Please model this.
Amino acid sequence: MLKPLFRLILNRVVMRLTAEGLDRVPSAGPLIFAGNHSSLLDGPLVVIEAPRTVRCLVKSELYTGILGRLLLLSGQIPVDRGRPDRSALHTALDELSRGGAIGVFPEGTRGSGEVETVQHGIAYLAVHGRCPIVPVACVDTGQVLPKGAHWPRRSVHARMVFGHPFQVEIPANPRSRRALAAVAEDIRVRLADHLAQARLAPTSPPSPAAPPARPGSRRSAGAGRRRPRRGGPGPTGSGRP
Model:
């Protein structure tokens, strides 16, 4: 219920952001949002901008103080990045089994956001959850809020580009580490390709179109040509040529 308000404040006051491809997101059914990760903004932006209620897997270190309470109240899932966190995976699978949507940043930690490597947890969720994945390209979010910054830079225009959903091939042995590694690599390639395609688009919103010229105005067709004055003085001063 509060997402429209947060979206308005975020996009108009805090930073400059454009969300694209929202019509590609399935409106119902289990779903995984998977994005590249270069900024602390990426998780909140997916939660706020996605047209679905999203529960993101968030590193457990953030679950302290007021921020930790907000994360719990909004239904986010704490995950221990130092070990295979089966509790977090089972919580995510339970959400998928109820037809919900979860958010994952499979690189595992904030970095360049180039999707050079991914953790196998997303492959486990995609295979055992039997659900599609929507790739999310977080473009220039690392420039809006780089490491060490305390407030987003409005001088940079960021984009959240939601891609077409895809499904992974279910391996014959879904518990095989080698099979899950192959699925994870397939996901990595698809995410990297979507990120590359998203970056081809302009990084700034198009300038507003000029208002149409009014008939008879100087901006109308032929305004650049001067029309001869009628009745003006000719060589003899009589008003005739």
Q: What stands out?
A: The beta strands are 16-20, 31-35, 54-59, 77-79, 101-104, 133-139, 157-162. Residues 88 and 216 are 68 Å apart (CA to CA). Residues 203-241 have pLDDT under 50 and may be disordered. The first strand starts at residue 16 and ends at 20.
